[in-house]
Specification:
Layout lengths: L1 H28 L5 E7 L5 H11 L14 E7 L10 H18 L4 E4 L1 H10 L24 E2 L19 E4 L14 H16 L8
Parallel strand pairs: 1-2, 1-3
Antiparallel strand pairs: 3-5, 4-5
Length: 212
């Protein structure tokens, strides 16, 4: 008779308990990033590639949140580019543009790996920090794209596991400090500085020279 009288109460209780349990699992297994990269371009960063990128980045990250873990968050957005993209790609690009704009407005990515057309949008938005404010001038490659960005093909760091999968013509740049923004949407200077440490390492890293 219990099931007859308490059927729906029991079902609802099971659903509530399951929901609470799932929420707790997600709470304790979710890792807060110590730095966050946004990639947008024609390439696709597979889960294995992002795992490799995270393992490499661990060596250069600060433990920003003090959880004794070093974790790189990566947002990757695939977008078709060029003058002759297929009709089927327009819907993909519309969604990519939405995700891009949302991340720039309210997201917490600080390091950007972007295809040229999106890089130019970032410059027009006025959200980028000058390289000279981030990196010692003697560490800057001679052929930077401009004062805000550099192509990854000019940095040895992008020969490392995972990062080598980023297309060579991708432009690396960094968001300006939240101090410079009227609306920071929760982005903090402390998190920005943690990202800056990784960004600087990308310029400081020098790979072994191959023998002639």
């Amino acid at each position: 008779h219990f099931w007859y009288f308490y059927k729906w109460q029991t079902i609802i209780s099971i659903i509530v308990v399951f929901g609470i349990g799932l929420g707790l699992v997600q709470l304790f297994t979710n890792v807060s990033p110590d730095a966050r990269i946004m990639y947008i371009g024609p390439g696709y960063l597979s889960p294995n590639v992002k795992t490799d990128m995270g393992k490499v980045a661990e060596q250069y990250l600060n433990d920003y949140n003090g959880d004794n873990k070093k974790y790189l968050g990566i947002l990757d957005i695939t977008a078709a580019v060029g003058d002759n993209i297929p009709q089927t790609a327009y819907e993909l690009n519309t969604e990519a543009a939405k995700r891009f704009n949302v991340e720039i407005t309210t997201g917490d990515s600080m390091i950007y790996l972007v295809e040229e057309s999106f890089y130019l949008q970032l410059k027009d938005m006025g959200v980028l920090e000058k390289l000279s404010n981030l990196i010692d001038t003697d560490l800057l490659p001679d052929n930077t794209y401009d004062e805000y960005g550099v192509r990854v093909s000019n940095l040895d760091f992008f020969n490392l596991d995972g990062f080598s999968a980023v297309p060579d013509n991708t432009i690396l740049c960094m968001r300006q400090s939240p101090v410079s923004e009227e609306l920071s949407y929760g982005r903090t200077v402390e998190f920005w500085n943690s990202n800056k440490a990784l960004f600087k390492a990308m310029f400081e890293y020098k790979g072994e020279k191959k023998p002639d």
